Amino acid sequence: MGIRLAELVERFGGELIGDPATEVVGIAPLTDAGVSHISFLTNSKFRAQAGQSQAAALIVSPNDDALVAETYQGARIVTKNPYAYFARVAQLFESLTAFVPPAGIHPTAYVDPAAQVDPTAHIGPHVTVEAGAVVKARAVIDAGCYIGRDAVVGEDTHFFANVTFHARCTIGARCILHSGAVIGTDGFGFASEGGVYIKIPQVGRVVIGDDVDIGANTTVDRGALEDTVIEDGVKLDNLIQIAHNCHIGAHTAMAGCVGVAGSAKIGKHCTFGGAAMISGHITIADNVFVTAATMVPRSITEPGQYTGFYPMAKNSEWERSAVVVRNAAGLREKVRELEKQIKAITTPKTLQEDES
Amino acid sequence: MGIRLAELVERFGGELIGDPATEVVGIAPLTDAGVSHISFLTNSKFRAQAGQSQAAALIVSPNDDALVAETYQGARIVTKNPYAYFARVAQLFESLTAFVPPAGIHPTAYVDPAAQVDPTAHIGPHVTVEAGAVVKARAVIDAGCYIGRDAVVGEDTHFFANVTFHARCTIGARCILHSGAVIGTDGFGFASEGGVYIKIPQVGRVVIGDDVDIGANTTVDRGALEDTVIEDGVKLDNLIQIAHNCHIGAHTAMAGCVGVAGSAKIGKHCTFGGAAMISGHITIADNVFVTAATMVPRSITEPGQYTGFYPMAKNSEWERSAVVVRNAAGLREKVRELEKQIKAITTPKTLQEDES
Amino acid sequence: MGIRLAELVERFGGELIGDPATEVVGIAPLTDAGVSHISFLTNSKFRAQAGQSQAAALIVSPNDDALVAETYQGARIVTKNPYAYFARVAQLFESLTAFVPPAGIHPTAYVDPAAQVDPTAHIGPHVTVEAGAVVKARAVIDAGCYIGRDAVVGEDTHFFANVTFHARCTIGARCILHSGAVIGTDGFGFASEGGVYIKIPQVGRVVIGDDVDIGANTTVDRGALEDTVIEDGVKLDNLIQIAHNCHIGAHTAMAGCVGVAGSAKIGKHCTFGGAAMISGHITIADNVFVTAATMVPRSITEPGQYTGFYPMAKNSEWERSAVVVRNAAGLREKVRELEKQIKAITTPKTLQEDES
Q1: Residue C318 main-chain phi, psi, to 5 deg
Q2: Phi-psi map region of B8: left, alpha, beta (phi>0 left; psi -120 to 50 alpha)
Q3: Does the annotation mark B269 as catalytic?
């Protein structure tokens, strides 16, 4: 059941200081770790806790190692990015105990005879796979999922229960779609005539790269004429809305409840805090960080952090200030008026006449 | 495969300038259109692109036609609303290739013997139709949908995969419910007693008119005692929440992530930008446009556009300003104090004494 | 069909003034109630309506009773909390007519042989119950639900159609999960290395107490290493996101579209208005009320109401004020400058020299 530290270093690198034969059976936070756990120090301010940890081994950065060694007696794996190292070790431990769904099609699933399901893929109970759809090697499609006509699901991709993946959309390898995610709904496109809406058919697709995670109940609309595109490594949390024709650059991450309106083009390596709202038809540069609860009304061309939410206060204080904010233009007018009056007072008469 | 321009004009009106026998095989934007496509000019600022388009034909407004004709050599269909015309032509082309699900009940579906499903309707795999439910002619119920007891689904209405439509709710003709939409959940109604909540049974229904579209993972709660009502032609995007007892007027449209609290009465022909939030028990007039990310805390009695989101800035600028905004009432106090002081300086002494 | 007033008072308490043999057949608002209904007065300002109500009986507070008796001729049940009394009477009437799903497993459901389903539980069509899962007495699992491996569903708990409840999560007694709710998704946890995200396995659970209601399409993520916890009596509306490792105290209620970021600790008896957004890793005291559309960026240690949304205005007014708000720090600078200048004017020269 245990893994020797030597094996960890062999798999994931890092410098081992201590006995390579030491075995660990799991990974745990500093304060929770027992004597057969490995733990990790990802923030220097917890150095003191490290000294008191019972963990058999510690993943630590070169910066922290010397100080940690003063108080901590166990083995250390020194590595530049202890948090990433922790993630890999945790994945390894999880893989040892995780349930692996069997290859094959559950008897209660419906797979159209014209669909292609790789024999190594898992198709769970009550799944529907429509004609022309392709499910590639080792893909796992859990109970109740729907895969539309001519859709393509890549190798090792996992749909948790009750995902809806519509016709002609494609998703790459090693992706995770969480329960309730809906990919490839019609975009919200209408022409207005005499106050009545006429639906514009949405004939584009959703095209998703490799290593993309999409959260529970998140929705991604298909493009109107062209495709909605989500590049490699994008991570979307729960309850996010991505509208038609959006393009999300590689390795961009969005926290829960974010909304992105139609045709927004978002760069690579961006991060969006929860409930950030992105307007349609705008462009956001690479490496932009939008704070939670911020409305982005226009394009952002420079990397950096952008924010725009109303600062919370006790309700009574907010009420007093909100009236002023609502008429902030009026307050500025008053200040301008005061500036004029003071100028009139402080400026010598002759100068005033010269100016007029 | 192609459609003659004569046929388009016959179906949808407009004045054709060019050869009625010209055939087009699809519709595409100005810059993408090939020689067998029809394209459209919906915004005068793209007139220049029209001249360079390879499209065999162009849908154009009377206003733009003369200038377009100077550079564009193909056929033109002149019509007052080219965008609506485009929508109709696109619908026509889509209908030629769209998959039409067969009439009848899929063998894996469960339809209660006491439900009435029209023989022309389609019931997909793993669908559940409870007792007393009615599914009318040519309705299409895709895989995994749930239709509750005594619910009614109108003619030609389409539920995409995994829609939940609860007991006793009704929906009219030609509606579209997108995947994951949940109609008829219990409203959020509780009485509080000694700090504990007691559920108030929600016994109203959701009553939906004709030609209504409801987006993916959008939720509409049933009324507490009366009904939640969505009138004809309403268009709701994805991830919208409509609480119990709301009434949404005909031909109102809401973009994604909007929330409407209980008992709000919303007029006809309104539009709501994404993530707009509507308070409960308020009334919104017809023809109101609420900007995205705006909280509507009170009734709106006049048509027009209403806005209220914090203007985004670089985070460091926002931090400096947010402190001031949080205490905007304090700033106004200071300005009032300054006004008094300046008045004291500028007002002749005798006048000041008179005022006191 | 009817219930005698005597029976109501026997079940729910209160002082009956009038004929105990009077029968009522349902409960309705003051203005809608007919002669065989019981109605209720929960707000003194509607006393006038009470006088005109046709209701056979009225639930009324001691405070209102004397005035109501002047104009209203029917029977009265006097009780301290008429709204809670109304809720209980309404529940009683609903229970008389509500459909009770039969015990047993629907033939189209898939229940793993290694799952334990109590014989009094209802498992609806197309449900999946994985190995090791436990469904306790009188639980109702409607069509299309998914219950993961080793998950536990308590007595009398009701999952409406299409709920997803993931592996190892537990939920107590008398809970209601509404359609599309997803419990136990992986939390949004990644380590970043070289601009690429590495998934951190989410091995905690979601642990839900008794008498909890969770709304349609609401998502609750499992903990990363520890558990996400929702205590007894919590009420969550639709489309809410609860991130990993959150802890929500007993009898706290959240309206629709609220988002709670990871590791937030929320007290008991709190209420959150719609679309309130709670930052991660913060603590909120008991008895806090957060107004709708408010972003909570930091811990709240004192009970009370907190607010922070931008006050809505006509768009043109908002545009004028938003520019000022965006540069509120600049406006304060101007005011400070004015204060200095006025001080310079009003302070006698000699004093000014002393200060310097």
Answers
A1: -60, -45
A2: alpha
A3: no
Beta strand A3-4 with A23-24: parallel, antiparallel or unpaired? antiparallel
Rounded to the nearest angstrom, the minimum Cα separation between C204 and chain B is 26
Q: Report the C-alpha gap between C254 and C275 in whole angstroms.
A: 9
Q: C132, exposed or middle or buried, with CB in 10 Å at 0-12, 13-18, 19+?
A: middle
List the single residue in C with minimal CA-CA distance to B338: C339
Which of C257, C334, C338, C343 should one mutate to test binding to chain B, selecting the residue with the greatest count of B CBs within 10 A?
C257
Task: Report yes or no: A324 and A287 within 8 Å, Cβ to Cβ.
Answer: no
Distance CA(C205)–CA(B149), nearest Å, equals 34
Give the number of other Cβ atoms within 10 Å of residue B343's Cβ: 13
**Per DSSP, what are the bridge partners of residue A214?**
A177, A236
Asked if residues C176 and C153 have their Cβ atoms less than 8 Å apart, the reply is no
Neighbours of chain B (3+ CB pairs under 8 A): A, C
Contact by Cβ (8 Å): A301, A287: no
What six digits make up the tokens of B219?
A: 């939720």
**Which domains, and CATH codes, for chain B?**
3-97 (3.40.1390.10), 104-306 (2.160.10.10), 316-355 (no CATH)
ipTM of this model?
0.95
Residues 6+ apart with CB under 8 A from B124: A128, B101, B106, B109, B140, B141, B142, B143, B144, B145, B161
Contact between C93 and B201 using a beta-carbon 8 Å cutoff: yes
pLDDT per residue rounded down to tens, chain C (356 residues): 799 999 999 999 999 999 999 999 999 999 899 999 999 998 888 888 898 999 999 999 999 999 999 999 999 999 999 999 999 999 999 999 899 999 999 999 999 999 999 999 999 999 999 999 999 999 999 999 999 999 999 999 999 999 999 999 999 999 999 999 999 999 999 999 999 999 999 999 999 999 999 999 999 999 998 999 999 999 999 999 999 999 999 999 999 999 999 999 999 999 999 999 999 999 999 999 999 999 999 999 999 999 999 999 999 999 999 999 999 999 999 999 999 998 888 877 666 555 44
Tokens 């609309």 sit at which residue? A221
Kindly tell me the burial class for residue A10, based on how many C-beta atoms sit within 10 Å of its own C-beta (0-12, 13-18, 19 or more): exposed
Hey, what are A301's tokens?
Answer: 């061309």
- How far apart CA B332 and CA A335 sit, in angstroms, is 10
Q: How many CB pairs under 8 A join B and C?
A: 226
- Which chain C residues in 323-342 lie under 8 Å from chain B, judged by CB atoms? 323, 325-329, 331-332, 335, 338-339, 342
User: What is d(CA C164, CA C160) in angstroms, rounded to the nearest whole number?
Assistant: 10
Show Cβ contacts of residue C201 under 8 Å, excluding neighbours closer than 6 positions: A87, A90, A91, A93, A94, C186
Q: What does the block give as tokens for B87?
A: 């929508």
What is the gyration radius of the CA atoms in chain B, in angstroms?
28
Strand B196-199 to B190-193 pairing: antiparallel
- Whether the CB-CB separation of A160 and A177 falls below 8 Å is answered with yes
Residue indicated by tokens 């949908």? B145
CA atoms of A8 and A89, how far apart (whole Å): 7
Q: Render C49-67 in DSSP notation, one character per residue.
A: HHHH---SEEEE-HHHHHH
What is the tens place of the pLDDT at every residue in B92-151? Answer: 999 998 999 999 999 999 999 999 999 999 999 999 999 999 999 999 999 999 999 999
A51 CB burial (10 A radius; 0-12, 13-18, 19+): middle
Q: Are strands B23-24 and B3-4 parallel, antiparallel or unpaired?
A: antiparallel
Phi, psi of B69 (to 5 degrees): -60, -25
